[in-house]
Amino acid sequence: MSINCLVLGAGQEVGKSCVVVTINGKRIMFDCGMHMGHHDDKRYPDFALIDGPLDCVIITHFHLDHIGALPYFTKEYSYNGPIYMTYPTKALAPLMLEDFMKVTVGRGGEEKFTTDDISECMKKVTLVDLKQTIQVDKDLQIRAYYAGHVLGAAMFYAKVGDASMVYTGDYNMTPDRHLGAAQIDRLELDLVISESTYATTVRDSRYAREREFLQAVHECVEGGGKVLVPTFALGRAQELFILLDDYWERMNLKVPIYFSSGLTKQANIYYKTFMSWTSQKIKDTYAMHNAFNFKHVVSSDRSVINTVGPCVLFATSGMLSGGLSLEAFKKWAPFEENLVTLPGYCVAGTIGHKLAAGKRTRIYVDSDSQIDVRCNIHQLAFSAHTDSKGIMDLLKFLSPKHVMLVHGERPSMFRLKDKIKSEMGIECDVPANGETVKIPCATLHVKARTSDAFVKSCQSSNFRLSRCSTSSGLVASTDPCSPLLVSDDRVGEAVLLLDQSKAKAMHQDELQFLMSVEEKP
Amino acid sequence: MKLTCLSSGSGYQFPPCHILEDVCGFRILLDCPLDLSALSVFSPVPPDNDFVSDGKASYDSARDCFDKEQEIQKRQKIETPLHGKDLIHDELWYKTVKNLHLWDPSSIDVVLISSVMGMLGLPFLTRAEGFSAKIYATDAAARLARLMMEDLIAMNMEYQYFYGPRESGGPHWMRWEELELLRPELKKVVVGKDGTELGGWLPLYSSADVMDCMRKVQTLKYAETACYNGTLVLQPFSSGSEIGSCNWTIDGPKRNIAWLSCSIFASAHAMNFDYGALRGRDLVLYSDKQFLPLMDEVQSNDASSTIPSNDLSSLSRYCSADKDDWKELTESLLSTDEILEKEKMDFICSCILQSVQAGGSVVIPYNRLGILLQLLEMIPVLLESLAADVPIYVISSMAAELLAFTNVIPEWASKPRQEKMFSGEPMFSHVDLVNKRKLHVFSAIHSPELLTTWQEPCIIFAPHWSLRLGPVVHLLRRWSGDENSLLILEDGVDPDIALLPFKPLEMKVLQCSFLPERRLPKVDCMLKLLQPKILVLPDDLKEKLDFSNPSLDSFSVLYYTEGETLSLPSSPEGTLDLEIASVLAERFAWQNLGRQDVMYTRLEGELVMEQGKFRLLPGITSADSHPSKNKE
User: Fold this and answer.
1) Is there a single domain that holds both residue B119 and residue B156?
2) B160 and B193: one domain?
3) B150/B18 same-domain check
């Protein structure tokens, strides 16, 4: 009995999340992502390392680093088994994948899968709702739990026989403007595989960070400047829409908020539909006013870059690596009154990453053009990932026998590992890509049949009085003054009979009866 | 284990209600409905048809004249046809399940809810003193039920304003001498066939009762597991009959039960019947006397397979209500077994169209959410094809919330609806209709917005199907004299009584069973799939089903009767499973029993019940006493 974890991606790094777990012979792939920082073979997990057929694939959420390689995998390795994901993930994942295709093909790049592959792949999806217990086959049971992070993100519990584990995917332990905090039952677990994006960061109140952001935006538009918010089309964008829409309403601002149409428009429809996956506040008020019906946010096209006067623009890509956000950046960055907000995390090599590193510099946009960045830069300090305290809280709550960390940065992951070991005394691994971690799990119990008499005798009390031994234990039985100890040993009269390797628990009277019957002939 | 059928119910509006006793020592109530069809004994309007709501004065005069009428009847006792004046003119009371109030609420351990309708009586129970049972319902059913209850309260309030403050003491019609005066048809509804049901009548619960009730409900998703007291593992699975309605599995250490409520294989809007999940239960309790699921689909494994074309002629009878062939007509309509739902809906739509074209309006007192949604999609398409500019109104205090709700529950919808959503469209098109100003949603009939947009002819969806509450009452009074107008009734109400207050009636009335497929099914296929050891059926099905088929003799069939308690055989002895913690197993000291292969060992630890399984775990007591034993 053991759990084997083969880490194909997100081992000591962020990107291409993919772990293949074998529990008592059942092989499950958790996530199937791509790495956005690579453009060669390293972009995909090395599927060739998988040493047997998969029983199922589980996708935790729609981000490309968790689902990006799925169409490629199902096509190239002709995987026809079940793929489990939540309702919003199934709705939003094709949007993400197709948008990604458009961007790569637009850049002249070539991708390993086509739009047809995406739709073929989505056909194999089996939908799961939160907390549904799903019997994949006779032995394998899975269940999804709410993870926060993005719409439809889920943590997955898997159980085969006595061995059970949780793969968290990405999660957030604090609620935000549109999503609730991660929620899970107290489970008996052998293993938890957790993300660790912010393995060592502890964030302070979200409220203060939001206020900083709103103030920065407000000051900029009041001064007649333009605000560029490079963002992923899904998730963060909707959260900021709610934040700004609400603020605009309260402050009675008239400055237009644009978002580049297409992807986000479609996404907004889904956000309006998947009410049960949003935060409690949005759930409670949808009947009166659907929080995703924005009053001040309007869709627009590219021409918005050249408009006069203050505005706020949401555009992809989120790390300024291309798309409308890069175009707007080129145009707006040289002016002091403008503002660019950066997401909390930018992959190395992107312009977003360069901006985050230092302020007011000349930046090479591509090989031959450079830009004088004079605008203000504001770094968003709130994230959809849990911080280090959240990870520790979750692990303390679940108290598994083993922990494995993935999806983080190497040095801080090791620091977190040490912390988990010292504070909780739980074994913790931080495997690199391609490594296999073998986690032994003990058999929890043996099975037997039992008789009614046994159960009955166990349910009635069977008190025994004894003299408690004193600390020395030598004069215990003779000392009448030592306190009286009451024990209730209900199982005391039970025996287990092993007859031709069939075990049956019974009451001792039953055994005597059996013996007497046997002796007679 | 014992099963008591408190009420075998009547169709969708009033699902059956049962009590299961001693399920591993617990008492389980299955559904807690409200018999809203009984409301028909009340009159929503004074008997005088010329009365035009101008206040208490004329009401009093109407009441006086009513009293006189009663006196005359008392003296003469002449058998005249039932008249609107014979109805009870008083504040509405509501009829709960017969004899449920005779059970001590504190003795119930678990309440399972199968559908929205099965929940409407729950606030009466939850407010009872000593009630402490755990209530389980699906998330969607609970949310819909709350809307229905709130709507009921709002409509009841309106009715109360009309009849003024409540009399002290019980209502006058409950007095023995008044009951004697009731016409037999009405008396049967009030006190039941055997005269025992008077105790079930209660004034409606309050908003606070509903809030309190909803707080006590634990809501689940389909296939989510709940564990009661560590012993009973409960799981709801989609039954296909409505959004959020479900069948339950109850798994205990000794007994696995599947409770099948009204189930439909292929639903137009709700998630399909999940029959596979009910497999492997040794006892199957079938609680619905009328609707056995359609079996053909199981064999063809295609839920949307075609069903032989049907004879619509019996349905297409269409009449004005004053003719006295109501009984015959409704029977012929309700017995149209093999009418495909789609064709039925088409027929209804064509009737609606005819009325509208003739300049009449159409009133649809909807009840089933699915029917409302389907008609809301079909009617605009038809109107468009005729280029007819007829507005559609939905009037109810909860209409807006209800419609908003239907588009945020993809997890409970049927496959085709989900596909629609995944392709980027809203699941139900009413959002679009509202935006195009073809559909108007109002909270009340007197709302100013309604008055400004009002246009006749029109098509109106409004509660309540009992024709005693809500906007429907006003609309029927308006159009009852218009022969071109049309009222569409669902089954579940007795039109003889329901239409009384609105007579003389020129308006056309179409009564139709909206439930698909009432033909007698081939149960064997389903049972082969479920493989129960014991099948428990309502006695109404005794004659209709044939279990002589040799493939089916592997299980025993029991029949239950309303109002009676049926003992269910207990499972054979010694079949319990035990899991012994490996820590304990390592300490086993085997001893030989004289014969080969037979060994025994003493057990220790603590027996606990978890997730419906017995487990022997290392207990604190055994760990403490262990060393001392060694010393001895």
Assistant:
1) yes
2) no
3) yes
Specify whether the CB–CB gap between B62 and B129 falls below 8 A: no
B328 and B267 in a common domain = no
- Whether A370 shows a pLDDT value over 90: the answer reads no
Residue A470 in this model has a pLDDT that exceeds 60: no
- CB of B426 within 8 Å of a chain A CB? The answer is yes
Q: Is the same domain home to B155 and B244?
A: yes
CB contact under 8 A, B235 and A133: yes
Within 8 A by CB and 6+ apart from B614, the residues are A450, A455, B253, B576, B577, B578, B579, B607, B608
ipTM for the predicted complex: 0.85
Query: Cβ A287–B622 below 8 Å, yes or no?
Result: no
- Domain annotation covers residue B58: no
- Closest alpha carbon within chain B to A131: B224
- CATH assignment, A2-202+384-440: 3.60.15.10
Q: Which domain holds residue B506?
A: 319-512
Task: Report the C-alpha gap between A237 and A362 in whole angstroms.
Answer: 28
> Measured between alpha carbons, how far is A391 from A427 in angstroms, rounded to an integer?
15
Using a CB-CB cut-off of 8 Å, the residues of chain A touching B598 are: 497-500
What integer is the mean pLDDT of A410-419? 94
Domain total of chain B = 4
pLDDT in tens, A120-150: 999 999 999 999 999 999 899 999 999 999 9
State the angle between helix axes of B369-385 and B399-406 in degrees (0 to 180), rounded to the nearest 10: 90
Determine the pLDDT at residue A454. Answer: 79
Within-domain flag for B49: no
Nearest by CB to B580, from A275, A276, A448: name it.
Answer: A448
pLDDT of residue A292: 85
Rounded Cα–Cα distance for residues B93 and B38 (Å) = 9
Residue B355 lies in a domain: yes
Concatenated DSSP letters for A221-274? HHTT-EEEEE--TTTHHHHHHHHHHHHHHHHT----EEEETTHHHHHHHHHHH-
A487 contacts B607? CB cut-off 8 A: no
What's the confidence (pLDDT) of residue A236? 80
Residue numbers in chain B where pLDDT is lower than 70:
46-79, 165-168, 266, 289-341, 513-526, 528, 544-553, 572-575, 594-596, 620-632
- B421 — contact with chain A (CB < 8 Å)? yes
Question: Where along chain A do its domains lie?
Answer: 2-202+384-440, 206-379, 449-519
* Residue B419 placed within a domain: yes
pLDDT in tens, A321-365: 777 888 888 889 888 899 998 876 676 667 887 887 775 577 777
Which of A484, A496, A507 should be substituted to probe chain B, the one whose Cβ sees the most B Cβ atoms within 10 Å? A496
Q: Are residues B423 and B505 in the same domain?
A: yes
Within an 8 Å CB–CB cutoff, is residue B607 touching chain A? Answer: yes
Phi, psi of B613 (to 5 degrees): -130, 145
Which tokens is A481 given?
């003054």
Residue A430 confidence (pLDDT) above 70:
yes
Per-residue pLDDT, B60: 46
Chain A residue with minimum CA distance to B572: A452
The residue whose two tokens read 């049967």 is B188
**What CATH architecture applies to the domain A206-379?**
3-Layer(aba) Sandwich (3.40)
Shortest Cα–Cα distance, B280 to chain A (Å) = 13
Place A92 in a pLDDT band, splitting at 50, 70 and 90. Answer: very high
Q: Which of A13, A195, A239, A510 is catalytic?
A: A195
Return the residue of A nearest to B623 by Cα. A489
State whether B360 and B444 are in the same domain: yes
- Tell me which residue in B225, B422, B597 faces A500 most closely, judged by beta carbons: B597
**Per-residue pLDDT at A103 exceeds 80:** no
Beta-sheet strand order (sheet of B201-202): B34-35, B94-96, B201-202
For A273, the closest of B421, B575, B603 (CB atoms) is: B421
Q: What is the pLDDT of residues A213-224, one digit of tens each?
A: 999 999 999 999
Residues B496 and B372 in one domain: yes
CATH code at B361?
Answer: 3.40.50.10890
What is the DSSP code string of B502-528? G-S--SEEEEE--S---SPP-HHHHHH
- Tell me, yes or no, if A518 is annotated catalytic: no
